[in-house]
């Protein structure tokens, strides 16, 4: 099964993606996670990505398309299927993705679109905490870890207020044409994102299980 998960920053893409890949056994491909890993490893790609990400801007398409193409070409993708999270983010990326998939003889089965009002997202992003060891995402209020110790968790650099504002602006502007592009192809499944995490997952899970 080959899926995309879409939604504004903080909609819950990463949270749902972790549950989807666990249940359905497909490969999780998150461009944001790939860039953050490159930043942590202080590679050239990381250095470049950081200069855009910290401001809340998109990394240039040619860079992002390149890493996605390379990742989609790896063997596990063909074997297990994939869930793309955070890509495509521009209409150009969506068109490039079509070309990449054609070249690799892969087909997209569905787009999971997590819908939520943008006014709810600042609260989600400002309370997000990530476990330093496991990389798992939690929320101080909405999804607190059982054994919370402040020193075991960090906050993302781009969850600071100025970057959040910019990320929301950029993603609201760029996201609509992409959803329209996939609606035309009858691939979009809308999911109500303003419910508890487990209830969102019930809906997501039901949708994926219902795909032919
Ligand atoms: P990326 O890492 O993709 O970030 P994003 O799209 O801004 O989305 P987030 O990861 O912030 O949100 P999410 O939807 O995953 O929410 P989460 O599940 O964590 O991209 C970061 C940057 O990388 C971009 O700005 C750009 O610079 C660059 N980049 C990445 N891809 C790119 C591309 N294709 N092209 C160019 N540049 C690219 O949840 C958020 C919080 O809410 C958590 O604390 C969580 O616990 C909580 N939460 C989740 N669900 C619920 C719920 N149902 N109820 C209550 N709380 C919830
Ligand atoms: Mg995410």
TrEMBL record:
Top-rank lineage group of the source organism: Bacteria
NMP: annotated segments: 30-59
GO CC annotation: cytoplasm
GO biological process: AMP salvage
Record pathway: Purine metabolism; AMP biosynthesis via salvage pathway; AMP from ADP: step 1/1
Alphabetical UniProt keywords: ATP-binding, Cytoplasm, Kinase, Nucleotide biosynthesis, Nucleotide-binding, Transferase
Chief location category: cytoplasm
RNA-binding as UniProt keyword: no
Pfam families (alphabetical): ADK
Binding-site residues, ATP: 10-15, 128, 137-138, 195
Catalytic activity: AMP + ATP = 2 ADP
Record-linked InterPro entries: Adenyl_kin_sub, Adenylat/UMP-CMP_kin, Adenylat_kinase_CS, P-loop_NTPase
Any one GO molecular-function label of the UniProt entry: AMP kinase activity
Assigned EC number: 2.7.4.3
Subcellular location: Cytoplasm
Role, per record: Catalyzes the reversible transfer of the terminal phosphate group between ATP and AMP. Plays an important role in cellular energy homeostasis and in adenine nucleotide metabolism.
PANTHER family according to UniProt: NUCLEOTIDE KINASE
Family the UniProt entry places it in: Belongs to the adenylate kinase family.
Domain free text: Consists of three domains, a large central CORE domain and two small peripheral domains, NMPbind and LID, which undergo movements during catalysis. The LID domain closes over the site of phosphoryl transfer upon ATP binding. Assembling and dissambling the active center during each catalytic cycle provides an effective means to prevent ATP hydrolysis.
Subunit (UniProt): Monomer.
Name this polypeptide is given: Adenylate kinase
Organism ancestry: Bacteria, Bacillati, Bacillota, Bacilli, Lactobacillales
């Amino acid at each position: 099964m080959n899926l995309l998960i879409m939604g504004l920053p903080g909609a819950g893409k990463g949270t749902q993606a972790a549950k989807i890949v666990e249940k359905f056994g497909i490969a999780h491909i998150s461009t944001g996670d790939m860039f953050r890993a490159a930043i942590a490893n202080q590679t050239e790609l990381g250095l470049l990505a950081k200069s855009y990400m910290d401001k809340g801007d998109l990394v240039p398409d040619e860079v992002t398309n390149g890493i996605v193409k390379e990742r989609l070409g790896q063997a596990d993708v063909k074997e297990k299927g994939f869930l793309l999270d955070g890509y495509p983010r521009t209409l150009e990326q969506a068109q490039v993705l079509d070309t990449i998939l054609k070249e690799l003889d892969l087909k997209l089965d569905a787009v999971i679109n997590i819908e939520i009002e943008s006014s709810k997202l600042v609260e989600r992003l400002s309370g997000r905490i990530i476990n330093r060891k496991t990389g798992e995402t939690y929320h101080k209020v909405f999804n607190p870890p059982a054994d919370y110790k402040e020193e075991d968790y960090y906050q993302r650099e781009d969850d600071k207020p100025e970057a959040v504002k910019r990320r929301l602006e950029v993603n609201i502007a760029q996201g609509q044409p992409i959803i329209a592009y996939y609606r035309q192809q009858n691939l979009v499944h809308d999911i109500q994102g303003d419910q508890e995490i487990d209830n969102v997952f019930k809906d997501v899970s039901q949708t994926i299980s219902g795909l032919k």
